[in-house]
Predict the structure of Lytic transglycosylase domain-containing protein.
Amino acid sequence: MKPLPLLWLLMLLAAWPVSATVRQAPEPELRDLMQRTVAEAESFQDRFDAEVWLLDMSTRLKRYVRDPQERLTFLRLVHQEASKAGLKPDIVLALIHAESHFDRFAISSVGAQGMMQVMPFWKAELGRPQDNLTDNATNLRYGCTILSYYLKKENGDINRALARYNGSLGKHHYPAKVIGFWQDFWYVKP
C-alpha cells in the first residue's frame, strides 16, 4: 500500500524537531496505523477529511491517551458516533474532557460511568443490563444519543442541552466548562 502524500507530509511535520537539520521520517508503525485507521473511518466524507481530522485530533489528544492505536481507535469511534447522532465530534471531545478527562473507567459521585459519564439506569431503561458503560463504543453510543436528544429538545441551544445532559438545567457552570474546553482545545474551524 503506497503512503498517502498528505498524510506523509503531515506526519513528517509533526515528527520534525524544531532544531532538526536531518530529515526524519515518522515511525513506520505509526504511519501504517494511521493508514489503517483512515481506511476504516466510515463516517468521513473522504479520505482527506479523515487524514486531517484524525491527525489533528490525535496530536491534541496525545497528552490524555498515550497509546497511538488506542487514541486513533477512540477518535474514529467519537467521529462515528457523533456523526450518527448529528453532533460535532469536537463538541463531544470537549464534553468528554469535562466529564471524565478521557478516563474510560471514571465513575462520578452519583454513579455516572465512562468517558461520557452515562448514568447506569439507562441500561435498565433500555432493557440492556449486559451493556458495559466503560466500553468506549457503548458509552459513546449512549452519550451521543442523549446529548443529541437534548440538543433537539432545546432547539439547538447547546448551553441548555449541555446543562440537561449534566442534570444542571438553569445553571451555567457546566455548559461554560464544556464550551471553554471546546473553544480552547477541540474546536475545528469548518
The radius of gyration is 18 Å. Residues 92 and 162 are 11 Å apart (CA to CA).
